[in-house]
Amino acid sequence: MSRQREYDESDVRVRPGRRGSRPRTKERPAHADAVIGLVIGVDRGRWTCLVQDRPVIAMRARELGRKSVVVGDRVGLVGDTTGDPGSLARIVRIEPRTSLLRRTAEDDSDKIERVIVANADQLAIVTALADPEPRPRMVDRCLVAAYDAGMDPLLVLTKSDLRDPAQFLQDYVSLDVPYVVTTSVSGAEEGDGTDGLADLRARLQDRMTVLVGHSGVGKSTLVNALVPHAGRAIGIVNAVTGRGRHTSTSAVALPLADGGWVIDTPGVRSFGLAHVDLDRIIDHFPDLAAGTDECPRGCTHDEPECGLDAWVANGNAGPAGPSRLESLRRLLRSRAGTSDEHSAVHDQPDEPGEPPLVSDFAGD
Ligand SMILES: Nc1nc2c(ncn2[C@@H]2O[C@H](COP(=O)(O)OP(=O)(O)OP(=O)(O)O)[C@@H](O)[C@H]2O)c(=O)[nH]1
Ligand SMILES: [Zn+2]
């Protein structure tokens, strides 16, 4: 890791210089001529950006420094933005982000945060109802990641032909997480509603949705049903480096016919949640948040001194209070440590050459 960082282009080619010795305007030219593109794929130091309707291949400009450019980013492009074969544009800036999905690489001793996707507004947690068995703890971790990123979670429960969703859903009632139930083997015609695809399409329309789920849950089956030419779209992204689409482990954004995007994340199987801010999770429980006023400083909200127990016992959070508090604590606990199931699901290595980010996106 440290060797890779040593040879990162921003380290090698940009002379450190004295801090603040150059005027900011000179360091970061306005690039008034830059066109805006949407990053739809990243592969080996090349970014595929959609400019109007054409894919444009780009590299990052030095002036970006160590900032990660990820799928979902809107970027300013200069240079050859024709998208013609062999052309290469330069990414000179990243537009302000509305959300940031990140993870901590927990296998790294330095707990480095990495940005996975920018600007997505929904996280679809794809879980099979059976075969493979659902992993509730993983789902909880995804919920925490969504809340932390400022994204709306959506449970997508696949393989409803194998098991009724009622039991699984019990754990999510008090969290009020929206869900759709799908099956690819309804035996009926697609579009009659029994396969859940129409429900799912309605949930995805005009949104930018990240799909996460572990192997075998039926994510590819869904993507193929949602995006008829998904294979070709992924092919366009990966044609850049001649890398086959089946080997891609980076995120890729796919356009939906009805408007909106789904972002498939083949390389992301889990989230490290070490960076998550407690308050951002509590914020998603407005009925409980006010009850933390009586908490001791630095309360984890999962300790005997926590003020929430009394708050809820006094009825301040209504009849649902106790189960809401229980659910909140379940989510908080899912952040800590590494569960067996988590360590059994390893993340893929990151894009080579992508500099890890620690905190310089804080202002984004
Ligand atoms: N019974 C049933 N099987 C399904 C359903 N959807 C997908 N499958 C099967 O589940 C298996 C996994 O499906 P995929 O779509 O490849 O799953 P994935 O999540 O993309 O898994 P990876 O490719 O390993 O990432 C395949 O054998 C599918 O045919 C479903 O609704 N019901
Ligand atoms: Zn507390």
From TrEMBL:
Residues 1-14, 338-349 have a biased composition (Basic and acidic residues). Its EC number is 3.6.1.-. Keywords: Cytoplasm, GTP-binding, Hydrolase, Metal-binding, Nucleotide-binding, Ribosome biogenesis, RNA-binding, rRNA-binding, Zinc. Residues 1-29, 333-364 are annotated as: Disordered. The keyword Coiled coil does not apply. Binds 1 zinc ion per subunit. It is found in: Cytoplasm. Residues 109-271 form the CP-type G domain. SUPFAM superfamilies: P-loop containing nucleoside triphosphate hydrolases. Residues 118-269 form the EngC GTPase domain. Transmembrane segments: none annotated. GO terms for molecular function: GTP binding; GTPase activity; metal ion binding; rRNA binding. GO terms for biological process: ribosomal small subunit biogenesis. GTP binds at T158, K159, S160, D161, G213, H214, S215, G216, V217, G218, K219, S220, T221. CDD domains: YjeQ_EngC. InterPro entries: G_CP_dom (IPR030378), P-loop_NTPase (IPR027417), Ribosome_biogen_GTPase_RsgA (IPR004881), RsgA_GTPase_dom (IPR010914). It is an enzyme of class 3 (hydrolase). Its cofactor is Zn(2+). GO terms for cellular component: cytoplasm. Monomer. Associates with 30S ribosomal subunit, binds 16S rRNA. One of several proteins that assist in the late maturation steps of the functional core of the 30S ribosomal subunit. Helps release RbfA from mature subunits. May play a role in the assembly of ribosomal proteins into the subunit. Circularly permuted GTPase that catalyzes slow GTP hydrolysis, GTPase activity is stimulated by the 30S ribosomal subunit. Belongs to the TRAFAC class YlqF/YawG GTPase family. RsgA subfamily. This is Small ribosomal subunit biogenesis GTPase RsgA. It comes from Allobranchiibius huperziae. The lineage of its organism: Bacteria, Bacillati, Actinomycetota, Actinomycetes, Micrococcales.
